[in-house]
Amino acid sequence: MLTGRDAAHKKMTDMMAAGEKLPVDLSNRFIYYVGPVDPVRDEVVGPAGPTTATRMDKFTRTMLEKTGLIGMIGKSERGPVAIEAIRDNRAVYLMAVGGAAYLVSKAITAAKVVAFPELGMEAIYEFDVQDMPVTVAVDARGSRCTPPARRSGGRRSRPSTYRGGVTWVRLQPDVARLARIRVKCPHECGPT
Q: Is 50 left (phi over 0), alpha (psi -120 to 50) or beta?
């Protein structure tokens, strides 16, 4: 899996708009919206909690259509523009556990910078992961598999999570097709 946040997405979309070749192949890969912290002692990577995915919504259609990306992992819901792009490109959005950066970092078995090292923690990393706790939030049909965030008193509340915990998805470095990831949505959306 590859990583990327706002700065990396902006840089990649600018490069594509200028007709330049990207420094990394995103085809048939997942991108995790994270800026990992430097490791301490024997850690592969320091805390690696997800970044709010809605910040990448404006880049989603371009990234899916021009790179062959098959999925994204982040925190929080996606906006209508991103959900439409996910549906149109038969991709998937998985939600990682917000506030559990240490837990997520334990699923990362290898990490290396593969592009834009000048961006520091926002560089693009390649992670090998095993048993990363994620849940399907938007499936390949554009269906939300988590309840939408509730509004109370005109203020947005935290997104709800389904009862029963998270779905553990084994994302191996050799994942080549979305069809290999088969998880059951907790809200009976069906497998993605």
A: beta
Distances 78 to 9, 108, 118, 137 between C-alpha atoms, Å: 16, 24, 28, 9
Task: Give the amino acid at 78.
Answer: R
Closest to 137 (Cα-Cα) out of 103, 97, 178: 97
The mean pLDDT of 142-169, rounded to a whole number, is 50
Which helix H or strand E contains 82, and what residues bound it?
helix 80-88
Give me the phi and psi of 108, to 5 degrees please.
Answer: -90, 120
Structural contact between residues 4 and 112, judged by C-beta atoms closer than 8 angstroms = no
Single-letter amino acid code for the residue at 104: V
Tens digit of each residue's pLDDT (9 = 90 or more) over 30-66: 999 998 888 888 889 988 999 999 999 999 999 999 9
In DSSP terms, 158 is beta-bridged to none
User: For the whole model, what pTM was predicted?
Assistant: 0.78
